[in-house]
Description:
By secondary structure, this protein is mainly beta. It has a single domain, classed as Beta-galactosidase, Chain A, domain 5, CATH 2.70.98.10. Helices cover about 0% and strands about 45% of the residues. The protein has 1 helix and 24 strands. It has one helix spanning about 85-90; strands at about 1-5, 15-20, 20, 35, 50, 55, 70-75, 80-85, 95-105, 110-120, 125, 130, 135, 145, 155-160, 165-170, 175-180, 190-195, 200-205, 205-215, 220-225, 230-235, 255-260, 265-270. The strands form 6 sheets. The chain has a 9-stranded antiparallel sheet with strand order 7-8-9-10-24-20-19-14-17, with no helix packed on it. Strands 13-22-21-18-15-16 form a 6-stranded antiparallel sheet, with no helix packed on it. A 3-stranded antiparallel sheet has the order 1-2-3, with no helix packed on it. About 35% of the residues are buried.
Amino acid sequence: MLKIESKSKGAELTSIKLDGKEMLHQGEYWNRHAPILFPIVGRLKNEETIINDRTYKMAQHGFARDMEFKELEKNEKEHKYVLESNSETLEKFPFEFSLYVTHLVEDNTLITKYKVINKDEKKMIFGLGGHPAFICDYSNGNYKIEFEKQEDNIRFMSLKDGLILEEQAPNILSNNCINLNKDSFVNDAIIMKDIKSNKVYLKENERTVLEFDFTGFPYLGLWAKIGAPFVCIEPWMNTADKVNTDGKLESKENILTLEPNEEFECRYKVKFY
């Protein structure tokens, strides 16, 4: 049986227990559990971006993870929250919006759903992603990320100071898996695109710990603090700025757009074993 807990700050999950066993990082090594990334994913060059010819300051991964959401529903099976644009958000992001975050439990599966509604009279541009941290002592070399399908054309993206470089990072797949070890994150996150799979599996040796379904997300990130016993599996709609960015939010690779009154929805699913 799966049991979840969450909080209104950031609409963030704070606990996922499978038959009483905690599966989600509890904040001992990193002060977050499973933040939502909105309205940007990753870092902006110089912590700023240009929207409709005006420059706005925004910290890494956006502001939603640090804001108070309104609780709409909370029971054993469903936790639902909403963040409405306000004077604070408009100083950083010049659009009227509603951001819904819903965490659902179905048997041993967690479903996290995001819905963004453009409440503005102009086209809205934004980024979106997830960042859940699962308990995993990856430094011992016994854990791996296995892909659902054979990944012949996957691309690994290079980072420098949190920004995307033009040159690719080395392909670290071995037998269609990423073998995790103490050095996996010395160069920051592992970021992938051109992925065939809709699912990856976190395995301890050959035992499946969880199945992560990121259908519809074009990027997948992996990250952990060096030496900390957790690993983040991160489904992203877009990424950090490139090193040579022109600074415009609309120029970001795979940026999302919504016309007035349009909605965008996505979700990821995690099945625990």
